[in-house]
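Spend some time on the protein that follows and explain the fold to me:
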Amino acid sequence: MALRVGFAQSDITPPLGTEKAGWLEKIVADTILDPLHAHVAVFESGPVRVGFVSLDIVSITARQVARIRKLGEEAGVPGPNLLVAATHNHAGPAISTLGPTTRDDAYVELMMGRTAEALANAVANLVPAKIGVSSCTEGRVAFTRRFIMKDGTVCTHPAPHSPDIRCAEGVVDPELGAVCVKDGSDRILGFLVNFACHPTHHGGDTCISAGWPGQLSLALKRTHGDHCVTVFLNGACGNVAHTNPLDPGYTGDMEWIGNTLAGRVNEMVDAMEFTSQLPLSSSRTILNIPYRDLDGPYGVDYKLAQPFRSKEIYAASWDKLRREIVEPAFEEAEVQCLQLGHETAFATVPAELFSQVGLRIKMRSAVRRTFIVELANGTLGYVPHREAFDRGGYETTLGEWSMMAPEAGDLLAEAALDLLGRSEAGLGTVCQEHAFNLMPVSRRWWPPMKLAMMSYTLARQLGPDEKLDIRAMCELTGELGIDAVDIVTTHGSDPAQIRSILDDYGLQVAAYTFHADINHGSACERQRGVEQIKRGVETARVLGTYQTMIPTPGKEGFTREQSRANYIAGLGEGLELASEAGVTLTVENFPGALSPFVTSDDVLEAVYALPGLMLTFDNGNVLTGGEGPAECFLRTKDYIVHSHFKDWMIVEDGQGLKGVDGRSYRAALIGEGIVDHMSCIQAMAEAGYEGYINIEYEGDDYPAAVAVRKAVGYLRELMAAAGVVR
């Protein structure tokens, strides 16, 4: 397919007086040495566009990435196809609160606005292009910063020529990768450059600078013209720096490093083969990375700790972690793979990844040229390889910047390889498990694709004076072999009592659904609903689930668009409450002609506007918006954490629920209506969905318990045919 590429950059230099980040000290900038930029490249092949955003800052949060992806959508680049990375520049502004540094909200808004400009300009600059790809080894500028001392422990950044150094702890990835883009007249438009090394120049002083990545960009501009944009993507450099304690005479200033790397890139260009026909692809997965046990051997009493700052800073950080880490003790992490053709891939991790983990991915990947991009699409802090925790050092010492469990590297590596594919001609076992110190681990993503039952299905047929019998519900689930229930309100029962009964039957709560009155035009009117979200989140914790859903019906007097804006505003006010409790907040595809969230476009508008908001996919409700359920699932799959299955019959106007598509619907038993459940299950299987399928029945043709039994039998037949029963 013919290739088009567009580059752009915008100035994101902060004003003087801005607080800096990256040094765990309160430092205020009083000098601008060189500008910071947002660098953007957009590639297009046929109907597919992928984009790369590189920011001259120390890190980027998942919420900020979601905002930038929304800006990308507005510019014409699909959000899931956009890679957003920080160069890990230590001489830039504070974009998040970490230790003694405080996020500069005004700067974040400036950065967002300028990044939006660069995205729009990159799309506007799309022209027919050809690309060449190559890599080389460069061993003069990057070195391990962790050394095994004579007492067997590791010291990060030991004193130069220290007599206590025994040897370097690990390996450094010396690969310098480059993608060069030329237009039809052979003019070089820009580069993607990948190399692994910490940019820490001027981190501890009062200067603003883009560090050696900025100098690399300037050097390539001097050679190829001011129009040439370099999108630098840092590799796995969590334990790699530009200082060499074994050579006290080495200086490695940022100008020399930038010029050296630029020189090697230019050498590679001369030997590249260029092509203008190239398929593009994008894939990603979301996984749960566990936090470290704060009271475990690698927690607050870690015997091999090496703090870089005062005890007070670390103690304050530990207190913050105790407040913020709640059950379930994990952080969502995105791993992404953007491929340029079949032989070049950029695999991302949202962490300061150790070189051992990055090399594991590269050397086992089925894609010949695999480049690792760290601190992309979010940040988990340092992620060392497992053995590092038994030797100590700064990067393994607990803090907000090092808080994930020792197995985090294994989980991220395996997730990347799931996307890339694994080479059968990879490393031998000895090299894999001893030189790289990474043992295979069993991983759990979302729960296996199983069936759940909705308490609402049983409760809705009860009389006004009847109360749902929780034990009878549990007995039915046991009889049918269902593993979880979806609790919709507490049905007048005490949440702790419900949890106790569920424990008696060994049942999980797949999700907790509750109402929040937030479909109002003003914050004052929404306040009651926000309080309901707070109580709902608390109830979810008592029930033992960390997944909640808020129904989103429309309202007379509001258009669908107005209701959607109201809900987005109210959900935004409630998301922080949920996040603090470790609870995921979701909306579903809700039916009805006035419903604000029915189709995939409706839902995507909300999740792009509200990073952290997720989706409970309802395959029947989607149909009422005129969209195919399987199609909707695939469009929104990156945000789906739970699913409802139901069915409908088409009836005459006035005899049922009016849909957005203008048709009228009446509830039917799953399998007896018009919903194509098989195509949904196949789409879910192809997308790797491993969550629950929750049975919902809103009809009266059958007693609820009978309907559930019939639905379970029908769905199990479909799941078996699709090969997803486990």
